[in-house]
Each structure stands twice: as C-alpha cells, then as structure tokens.
Amino acid sequence: MEFKGFKEKVVFITGVSSGIGQAQAIAFLEQNAYVFGMDIAEKGIFAVAEFQNNPHFAYFLGDTSKKEEVEEAVKKAMQQFGQIDILLNTAGILDGYAPTLETDESLWDRIMTVNVKGTYLVTNAVLPHMVVRKSGVVVNMASIAGFVAGGGGAAYTASKHAIIGYTKQLDYDYVKLGIRANGIAPGAIETPMNQADFAGDGKMAKWVAKETPAGRWAKAQEVANLTLYLASPEADYIHGTIIPIDGGWLGK
Ligand code: NAD
C-alpha cells in the first residue's frame, strides 16, 4: 500500500515496542515518514530490523502515564525531528477481563491511568506543537470495548469508552486550529496482548474466531494499514469518529 503525503512527516507513536504500535511504526517507516517511538519496554524495538540503524527512527523509553517522562519524550522528538505531524496514542493495557467485584482499586487505577490519563498526557504534550503550525492529526486507540461489553473487564471497557469520548471532544475543540482527531476500534487482533488466548490448545482464540463474523483474528498490520489511511490527507473530512476494524463483531 502506498500513500502520498507521508514523506518528511513526523509520527509520534506510543506503545511502539509491540503489537499494533510496532506495526504502525513499520508501516509509516515504509512510507518514508520519520517515526519517534515511546514505550516502557525496549525489547520489541531491537527485534525489528526496520528500527535498527534507521535514521528515520528514534525512541524514548518511558511511561506514558507519567507527565515528566511524556514531556521528556516529546522534547527529545522535537530535538530529533523538529516537528510532530501525526500522533498515534496506541499504548494500552488489558485488565484480565475482571468484572467490577474482582477489580480492586489498584487494577482500576492502573488501567485508567495508562489507557486514559496516558492518552491525555501525551496529547497535551504534543498538541501545542501542532496548534502552533495549525496542522496535526491524532489517531487514538480505542477498541470494540469502547462500544460494547465483552471486549474486556470493567476497567478496560470503561477506559476505552472514555477514550472515545475524549477523541470526539479533542476533534471538536481543535478542528478550527487545524487539528483532526479520530480513533480506531479494533476487534480481535493477534498481538502479545492476547497471548493468553492462544496458550495451551488455543481454545479461547478459536472461540473468538468463531464468534467473529469474518471467522478469524486480524494481524496488527491490518490495523496499521487503516491508521495510514486515517492519518493521510485523503481522510481529511473524517473527523471526531471511531472506525471499527473488527471482522464484523459490532455488526452482530
Ligand atoms: P501489546 O501489549 O502488544 O502492546 C502494547 C504496548 O504498549 C507494549 O509495547 C507496552 O510495553 C506498551 N505500554 C503499555 N503501557 C505503557 C505505558 N504506560 N507507557 C508506555 N508504553 C506502554 O498490545 P496491542 O495489542 O498492540 O495493543 C495496542 C493497543 O490496541 C492498546 O491500546 C489496546 O488496548 C488496543 N487494542 C488491542 C486489541 C487487540 O486485540 N490486540 C483490540 C482492541 C484494542
């Protein structure tokens, strides 16, 4: 897939070490964009050839839910590449599908802090650099759990609903300043986040595939391809909305 308009663009991606964030980074590097990654884990970064000695790629190890670390990452990205054109808030964590009575306060806080506060902190650190140039695109990572029950536990589902609301308000408040914000709601994507489903005889993974109208899990690359489109100038009239990529799950 080739898109015009990403050459010389700078993309800031959180959750870049694994799964969907890693696939997004590779997809944008393939379009000749510059990518600045942020993640708490380093492992996946070195595992991918596209990242090694690539002058278009730099990263910062840090926690998106900690304000000082986010500000440091954004400062490094600006020093390295001079601007940020596209922000992908992809980092997120799952809650083990715990119902509310099995969700203690620390689990609730962890999920909300990483998924919701992290998205807000990174956005607030990057947005001023976009507003000053009256140009920028934000793509937040929601989930089918942002629309319906069953895609996570109490905290995860609440956090993804919050991300959807935040994304709509972000676009609404900043569209006049040249910012375009949307979200993506993936269904079953085969990444390390879901490795428990594939463990043992993979019974859970098979059940999920059977319950998905398309009859299969998707690859992270498929979410990255949608991200390319949403971030491209071709999607300029798509605002404040959440695009599902779920094999038909929400349409059931
Ligand atoms: P993943 O676990 O493979 O990758 C998530 C990455 O985020 C990891 O590299 C992790 O280190 C990083 N991360 C976690 N907390 C962080 C923090 N506080 N600061 C910095 N980095 C942090 O998961 P994935 O499947 O690629 O998920 C990516 C996003 O997509 C998440 O927001 C997830 O909720 C969402 N999502 C995934 C699926 C799916 O089926 N895989 C479905 C719907 C939504």
UniProtKB/TrEMBL annotation:
NCBIfam families: PRK06550.1. This is 3-oxoacyl-ACP reductase. GO terms for biological process: bile acid metabolic process. It comes from the Bacteria. GO terms for molecular function: oxidoreductase activity. The keyword Transmembrane does not apply. Belongs to the short-chain dehydrogenases/reductases (SDR) family. The keyword Chaperone does not apply. PANTHER family: DEHYDROGENASES, SHORT CHAIN, ESTRADIOL 17-BETA-DEHYDROGENASE 8-RELATED. InterPro entries: NAD(P)-bd_dom_sf (IPR036291), SDR_fam (IPR002347). CDD domains: SDR_c. Keywords: Oxidoreductase. SUPFAM superfamilies: NAD(P)-binding Rossmann-fold domains. It holds the Pfam family adh_short_C2.
